[in-house]
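Key result, reporting period 2: structure in, sequence out.
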């Protein structure tokens, strides 16, 4: 382990290694937590429908307190899920579609790699011949 990175073997028999960057893992977790909240998902849906909105438009449409909407928008902004654009005294929010596409791709790969690992274990269990009990 060096600094914020842990290097481990890919599997028990391989010399190939995997590097786990703890800063990257923390960032990924923060991003997934940001999008995994019902109210923030409503904000994302609203921004998808309206393309660009300010905090007033958002809290009125969702019937929230302004401070609540602002707090959730700040979380989405820190996760780079929404973009901001200043127009005089107003800040307009819009979706960062490329970031959302990257999140979706990451989640799909994560889920599919887990499914593949489970399927490999199932196939290995099925293909492993049973040892007769009388031996």
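The corresponding designed sequence is given below.
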């Amino acid at each position: 382990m060096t600094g914020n990175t842990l290097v481990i073997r890919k599997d028990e028999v391989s010399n190939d290694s995997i590097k786990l960057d703890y800063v990257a893992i923390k960032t990924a977790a923060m991003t997934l937590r940001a999008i995994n909240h019902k109210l923030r998902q409503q904000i994302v849906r609203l921004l998808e429908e309206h393309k660009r909105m300010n905090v007033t438009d958002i809290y009125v449409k969702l019937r929230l307190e302004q401070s609540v909407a602002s707090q959730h928008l700040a979380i989405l902004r820190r996760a780079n899920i929404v973009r901001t654009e200043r127009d005089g005294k107003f800040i307009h929010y819009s979706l960062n579609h490329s970031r959302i596409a990257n999140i979706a791709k990451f989640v799909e790969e994560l889920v599919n790699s887990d499914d593949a690992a489970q399927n490999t274990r199932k196939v290995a269990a099925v293909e492993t011949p049973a040892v007769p009990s009388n031996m």
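The first helix runs from residue 22 to 35. The first strand starts at residue 5 and ends at 9. This case is discussed further under Risks and Mitigation.
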